[in-house]
Amino acid sequence: YLDIEDIKNYAKEIISGKYSRGRPDQAIFEELLRLSAELRELATIGLPDIRVISFRGFPVMAMIRLPTALSRGRANVHKGAIAAGISISRGLIVGAVLKRERIERHPDTGVTLVGRRIPHWKGILQMAVRAQEASGLGYAGVDVTLSRQKGVVVIEVNRRPGLEIQNANFAGLKRRLKVVESWYEEGGGELTPEERVNMAREWDKERWRLTK
Question: Which of 52, 117, 155, 168 could cross-link to 143 by cystine, CB 3.0-4.6 Å?
């Protein structure tokens, strides 16, 4: 256990160059996030995260990555975490894969995954859209989590998010991206993040049907 003085001393060592061959360095501090109790049943170890693909201000696909004993508590799909697709319109888990195999239950707890509702869903989508726009990227994978202390928190924004999210949703991204592009081509105007989230949820209810 480190107290505040231990942390200060360790930071001073970093800055003075102890770990960089005597050259001045920088110390970066990251906040310790504690998982909200609302997601605790889905993840007994580690910190799950929710990835939202946001394209030109619209959320088009999402999944939650759940740490497992196999992944050693990390939300890394390639290390054995679960990838569970989430419906944009309803915020429900629609399917889950582990090592590219379909599963219905969490392997460690036996908890049923499909049909589970993700809390604060609208807020999660709005936060993801805002983060994508703030990044200056037209297409991004925004990773968020539900913190016990702060609610919806952005962890990072990814310029080139992987495509595993399509396997988790048993659906492709191409049609969804075309729906957004079509809306802009037809003269789509200025909307607030909340309005764009609402529109994306309606498109999802309609199975991302192209109008032309």
Answer: 155
pTM of the model: 0.90
Is the residue at 97 inside a domain?
yes
Closest CA to 127 of 116, 112, 114, 140: 140
Strands 49-55 and 82-86: unpaired
Q: Is residue 23 part of a domain?
A: no
Task: Note whether residue 141 is domain-resident.
Answer: yes
Number of domains within the chain: 1
DSSP state of 186: T
The model's pLDDT over 88-131, given as tens digits with 9 standing for 90+, comes to: 999 999 999 999 999 999 999 999 999 999 999 999 999 999 99
State pLDDT tens for residues 1-53. 789 999 999 999 999 999 999 999 999 988 889 999 999 999 889 999 999 99
Range of the structural domain that residue 77 is part of: 37-205
Angle at 164 between CA 162 and CA 169, to 5 degrees: 130
Residue 101 within any structural domain of the chain = yes
Return the SS3 of 195: helix
Task: Return d(Cα 142, Cα 155) in angstroms, integer.
Answer: 8
Cβ proximity of 75 and 50 under 8 Å: no
